[in-house]
Amino acid sequence: MIPELGNFALYIAFAFSILLSIFPVIGLKQNNARLMAMAPNLTLGLFVFTLFSFLCLVYAFVTDDFTVVNVAQNSNSLLPTHYKFAASFGSHEGSFLLWLLMQAGWAFAVAIWSKGLPVDMRTRILSVLGWICVGFYAYIIISSNPFERTLPYFPVDGRDLNPLLQDIGMIIHPPLLYMGYVGLSISFAFAIAALLSGNLDSTWAKWSRPWTAAAWAFLTLGLTIGSWWAYSELGWGGWWMWDPVENAAFMPWLVATALLHSLAVSEKRNAFKSWTVFLAIAAFSLSLLGTFLVRSGVIVSVHAFATDPERGVFILVLLALVIGGSLLLYSLKAGNIKSFGKFSIFSRESMLWGNNVLLVAATIVVFLGTLLPLVHKEIGLGTISIGEPFFNQMFTYLIIPFALLMGIAPLVRWKQDKLNNFITKPLAIIAISVTLTLVWLKVEFNDIKTLALLGTSLGIWIVLFTAVELKRMLSKVSFIKLPLSHFSMVLGHIGLAFLIAGVALTSQYSVERDVKMFVGDSAELRGYQFNFTQIKNIEGPNYDGWAAVINITQQGEHVTDMLAEKRFYPVQRNTMTEAAIDDGFFRDIYISLGERLPDDSWALRLYVKPYVRWIWMGGIIVALGGFVTLFDRRYRNRKHSKQG
Amino acid sequence: MNPRRKKRLFIIVSSISLLGAAIGLMLYALQQNIDLFYTPTEILEGKELGNGRIGAKPQIGQRLRIGGMVVEGSVVRSESNLNVSFKLTDIGPMVTVKYNGILPDLFREGQGIVAQGILVSFDTIEATEVLAKHDEEYMPPELAEKMKGIKHVKPKYETKTQY
Q1: What is the arithmetic mean of pLDDT over A327-355?
Q2: Angle, CA B84 vertex, CA B83 and CA B85 arms, to 5°
Q3: β-strand partners of A68
Q4: Do A353 and B11 touch (CB under 8 A)?
Q5: % helix / strand / coil in chain A, to the nearest 5?
Q6: CA of B29 to nearest chain A CA: how many angstroms apart?
Q7: Are strands A602-610 and A580-582 parallel, antiparallel or unpaired?
Q8: At residue A582, what are phi and psi to the nearest 5 degrees?
Q9: Which residues of A touch B163 (CB under 8 A)?
Q10: Using CA atoms, how far apart are residues A345 and A214, in angstroms rounded to an integer?
């Protein structure tokens, strides 16, 4: 009964999205205020019914309703309840419903917090969102209904959630990532609405900015958590593997980062406007492309859902409509956009332009590296793979100018500045950063690796320059008066500095060893003794297996006891490695239990990974920067004054 | 030229040269990092190019990816360390893969795997990475395509004690 209600609610939500895509537009054409005023209410309806539908699906999962195909295939009565909840978005169908919930949620948020916008602008934005929703809801109803039944012959128990997904990461990573992915549709809707109205002034950028920042912050957080999850769950100590699906989510992030910076120029200097619009279109198009890659089965990846060509075709059509339609509109209207802000070659504007060029270049690298194997195969040149070294190499090149610019750009004045003011200080800071790094690496690792030196100095360079800039700002205004959006920049840049340093250090100084050990053996790695003391049986709610107890000592002193598990999930007949991780600010110790060898010894993989936490810590700080912007007085006052 | 045009020209020229440099570097890096995928038959007999023509065999020392089924009874392990070697096949010919390290959880005889490594002799590969997907019915799609019509040997039911 409940699944039918959920299904019905989904249809009603679909109807709401159709109404939202039609009536407000007619209202705009006829200048009919009443029709235009329908938009927020229709959005409310869309959101409420989608939420209800999603809750029905969650209910079906939590109560083990195996008459629903989706539940039968992705859950099991023995699955712990919080994973049953996560399983509701573990499948293609369920995750798409979550996607819709996010989409409707964002649209509803716009309806609530956009009272300060002119009525026609707000109506346009909501109806653009309505058009997007029509496509998505039609998709889920036609080809991916999560409420399909198995009646009359339903199974007694379900086939369980993929063991890889039975992790806390599954509960937080997909919702955050989707929030970001879908949130980019808001920036897109703002851009399209502005193009349609032909009214692209700096107020438009001011409206769009907090929404873009919010979506971007969620996306940052989603990617960071995803990286951490892959690290702790996949059992081989990697935190980013340039997997096509990771790339699919990374491309929108790169473009959204460019958009965020370009929006700043549009808002403050009334320049870069048509470029900003283009980035907003590109960011959302790339997030749709990502969806297509993940759900159509054209690529092989840990993330890929079960494949079904029909689904792929549908998204491809949707993708073509969105990209084709918006680019057509763009080409018709962009010529009318005038950017008035003038600036010289050395100015904040040109620095931010550099930021955009580099981010776009990075996007092209990822795009080519991800799609080239596909193209190569389709045109009959055989199957190829493009290895991690390609991406690593390209990003090493790109990060150097990027980080250098990031250091000085905030100090450069808008419009025009003197290059002569930027010679002594940067040289001094370079000298300080490199010296500090050299001392650090010498003392800690007694071995200086070029790439680690490079990355860490760049990190220190950014932090030092950010400090200089902050000091200069504080000499002008008091700490309390400093706008929050300024802090968000500071956080974003410092977070990235940590991330760069973390990546450089962990990739250069991590050590790993595969060893064959009997109980009682011990092995040494980077000064740590790994003593294999015991192997024991473990029994979980829906799995059993082995756990190796490993006692870690350093110079005879006990550090910690670790439990590396090998789990066997009988329902899916899957074996899983559950790595043991001893985390720390300065280093992680990471152990994976491999197979039991014929002579009763065990294969173990031992890692010591210095500063790996800095990557995620940095990512979280960056995301925090995005969230802080939302509380900036400039954006807040607008809302309050109009609401009150 | 007036200064405004000059500035614009500068911006356009520098954008284009930057992008050009980036693309040049990228293509160079790409060239070094593309790994072709082979099946055991293709390694021994060359890739089929269609129309019955046979292409070149991979060269010794080349980096490549290979996908195949692990031949039953071919897994040989070292007594003292984690060295392991096994044979891979698709439709008959076999090549040997040598690897030092931990095999993935789903590695077992009769199962499809993908290995990445270097061809060290005409029929031997030293793998740096061995991959098997977390799905018991998994077969690398590239391989599935090549092996159309050939039955995939399902692994036997695995119990805990069989590790």
Answers
A1: 86
A2: 135
A3: A149
A4: yes
A5: 65, 10, 20
A6: 6
A7: unpaired
A8: -105, 105
A9: 546, 566, 595-596
A10: 31
Question: Is the pLDDT higher at A233 or at A378?
Answer: A233
Chain A residue closest in CA terms to B84: A597
Local confidence band at A309 (pLDDT 50, 70, 90 cut-offs):
low
| Helix-, strand-, coil-residue percentages of chain B, each rounded to 5 | 30, 30, 40
Q: Are A191 and A209 in contact (CB under 8 A)?
A: no
Task: Kindly identify which residue of chain A lies nearest to residue B99, measuring between CA atoms.
Answer: A514
Cβ–Cβ below 8 Å for A383 and B37: yes
Name every chain B residue with its beta carbon within 8 A of the beta carbon of A350. Answer: 11
Task: Tell me the angle at which helices A119-143 and A309-333 cross, rounded to the nearest 10 degrees.
Answer: 160
Higher pLDDT, A406 or A478: A406
> Nearest-CA distance from A302 to chain B in Å?
8
Q: Region A514-520: what's the mean pLDDT?
A: 93
In this complex, the residue of A357, A572, A576 whose CB is nearest that of residue B18 is A357
**H helices within A388-449, ranges in order?**
388-408, 424-445
The B-side interface with A (CB below 8 A) comprises 7, 10-11, 15, 18-19, 22-23, 25-26, 29-30, 32-37, 47, 50, 65, 77, 79-82, 100-103, 105-107, 116, 134-136, 140-142, 157-160, 163
pLDDT of residue B144: 62
How far apart, in whole angstroms, are the C-alpha atoms of residue B58 and residue B117? 12
Q: Which of A213-217, A386-390, A394-398, B90-94 is most confident?
A: A213-217
Residue among A516, A575, A604 minimizing CB distance to B81: A516
Chain A residues in contact with B136 by the CB 8 A cut-off are 572-574
Strands (E), B14-111: 34-38, 48-50, 53-54, 63-70, 76-77, 83-89, 94-100
8 A C-beta contact, residue B115 and residue B103: no
Helix A484-509 to helix A450-476 angle (10° resolution) is 170
Q: What's the rounded Cα separation, in Å, for the pair A174 and A294?
A: 13
- What φ, ψ does residue A255 adopt, rounded to 5°? -70, -40
Return d(Cα B47, Cα B57) in angstroms, integer: 7
Find, among B115, B50, B17, B4, the residue nearest to A382 by Cα.
B50
Chain-chain contact of A361 with B36 (C-beta, under 8 angstroms): no
Q: What is the pLDDT of residues A117-161, one digit of tens each?
A: 899 999 999 999 999 999 999 999 988 899 988 777 888 888 888
**DSSP labels for A552-607?**
EEETTEEEEEEEEEEEEETTTTEEEEE-EEE--SSEEEEEEEEEEPTTS-EEEEEE
Residue B102 C-alpha, separation from nearest chain A C-alpha, in angstroms: 6
Q: Which residues of chain B have pLDDT under 50?
A: 134-138, 149-163
DSSP letters, A126-142, are HHHHHHHHHHHHHHHHH
Q: Cα(B97)–Cα(B130) distance, rounded to whole angstroms?
A: 10
DSSP state of B34: E
Q: Considering chain A, what is the average pLDDT of its residues?
A: 90
A444: which 2 tokens? 């800690």
Mean pLDDT lowest for which of A250-254, A550-554, B65-69?
B65-69
Give the pLDDT band of residue A344 (cuts 50, 70, 90): confident
> A383 to chain B nearest CA, in Å?
5
The mean pLDDT value for A516-545 works out to 93
A82 pLDDT exceeds 50? yes
Chain centroid to CA A353: 24
Residues B40/B89, Cβ–Cβ less than 8 Å: yes
pLDDT for the residue B141? 57
**A:B CB pairs within 8 Å:** 117
Residue A412 · residue A347 · CB < 8 Å:
yes
